[in-house]
Amino acid sequence: MPPASETRTRAALRDLALGASVEVLARKVPPPEVLVGHLPRGAAVYVPFPPKGRWPDTIAACERVLAAGMKPVPHLSARSVRSRDELGDWLSALVETGVDSLMLVAGDRAAPVGPYPDTPALLDSGLLAECGLRRLGVTAYPEGHPFVGPADLDEALRRKTEYARATGSELWVVTQFVFSPAPALAWLARTREAGCTLPVRIGVPGPVALRTLIGYAVRCGVGASARALKRRPDVARLAGRWSPTPIALALASHLAVREKAPAVDIHLFTFGGLADAAGWLSRLRTATLTGDAPE
């Protein structure tokens, strides 16, 4: 019989595998009959909105996710909304489709195209509450933001939390992806010590070619971590592939001794590799049942 600590870690790892969410570009979301072959019913599928995105593509992707029996969580990019009327139209289209959850982001545009420079501006519009959208994800950056200082990030989270209390909204945090557990765990400790009890999803890159991952990292403002990643000896052994398993194991070990702590899950950035990410999650679930070391 395995020791109690190992049993708890294995259980925590299985919970992470079962509760994981994934992020897939709108045009990369497959038809429902394909999606159900990749992910379990009820899985949360986040749909990002890039600077050249089209809202009809987001709506179509959400429809495919819903038809597969899963939960779409489209990104609402503040800087991509041109007007209050357009925001109302976008939100109404989501509600008519059956979407009840949103991921709020400032967006990757250098400057806003309309009156909403950031997530607090979207909340202040009042339109989300008017449309009945009260399940909201918000962002966090364990390794810092390339353009926003730590104090401003903390203040933004405080304002979002106050909004949730005032409107009866359900709020959770999704972090930018990390390459090692250390910054995520350090950020999590600071956040909990500051009194934040919101559920957290730690962003983790799914299995992907290392060159692809580093390219995304540079564009997302975590270039320093990408360069450090290239220098790690274990990366060379990956033969050009990245594996999220070490981060999952470290998170599971952390959670195993904090069973009553606020919820923590993982959020997989698939970078076009949904099938690979789904396969990794499946292997992780199986490994926790057999006791084998996951890949």
SSE order and pairing:
Elements: H1 4-19, E1 21-23, H2 32-38, E2 44-47, H3 55-67, E3 71-77, H4 84-97, E4 101-105, H5 119-124, H6 127-130, E5 135-140, H7 150-167, E6 170-175, H8 181-193, E7 200-205, E8 208-209, H9 210-219, H10 223-231, H11 233-236, E9 241-242, H12 245-256, E10 264-269, H13 274-290
Parallel strand pairs: 1-2, 1-10, 2-3, 3-4, 4-5, 5-6, 6-7, 7-10
Antiparallel strand pairs: 8-9
Structural class estimated from helices and strands: alpha/beta
* Alpha carbon gap, first and last residue: 23 Å
Output the CATH topology: TIM Barrel
CATH class: Alpha Beta
Mean pLDDT: 87
CATH architecture: Alpha-Beta Barrel
Query: Major sheet: size, sense and barrel closure?
Result: 8 strands, parallel, barrel
Helix fraction, binned, reads: 40-55%
Poorly predicted ranges:
none
Detailed description of the structure:
The two termini are 23 Å apart. Helices cover 48% and strands 16% of the residues. It has 13 helices and 10 strands. The protein has one domain: Alpha-Beta Barrel (TIM Barrel), CATH 3.20.20. With 295 residues, it is of the alpha/beta class. It is globular, with a radius of gyration of 19 Å. Helix 3 runs parallel beside helix 4.
